[in-house]
Amino acid sequence: MSETGTPTSVSRVTLARIMDDGDANLHGNVHGGVIMKMVDDTAGACAARHQRGKAVTASMDEMVFLVPVRVGDILTCQAQVNWTGTTSMEIGVRVTAQRWDDAAAVEHHVASAYLVFVAIGDDEKPVPVLPVAPETADDVRRGAEALIRRESRLARRTAIKARRAAET
Fold first, then answer.
1. Nearest-CA neighbor of 77 among 62, 65, 92?
2. Hey, what long-range contacts does 43-46 have (CB within 8 A, 24 or more apart)?
């Protein structure tokens, strides 16, 4: 770790596995929930590595599936810390799929997701998160975009609370 924080490369994580019949829905494609769990697992490993300790999922932004994932595809999730706050961090996850039996097959972008994790101590209460140190121009861009998403999340939460308060 440097004086300015943990470099983004330190906590990057890639998880991959072949999708099988147990992952399939009635249409023969992989359940969205199976993919979402793998996204959460990958982001959780990334958050824990960054924090060097416990971190729990606080939220997941919407997830749009761009292409179906089929039984026999290798599903790959790549995660990195985009931004850190006081006790929370945003993890970006890119999901791709490729046929298992063809190394030359085109890898398809399935979805991207942004999750917020909160660092916690042994007492399960939030603790300060280690800062992230962007290493590349892409890391800096991802951090700036994470701030935009954070502002949007906070504004949505405030608007919902205000709406509920107006109803009472």
1. 92
2. 43/79, 43/91, 43/93, 43/113, 43/115, 43/117, 44/117, 45/13, 45/15, 45/79, 46/11, 46/12, 46/13, 46/79, 46/80, 46/81, 46/91, 46/93
* Per-residue pLDDT at 4: 76
- pLDDT over 70 (residue 3): no
* Backbone dihedral angles phi then psi of residue 145, each to the nearest 5 degrees: -70, -35
Of all residues in the chain, the percent with pLDDT exceeding 90 is 93
The CATH code for residues 6-167 is: 3.10.129.10
- Taking the model in full, what pTM does it have? 0.92
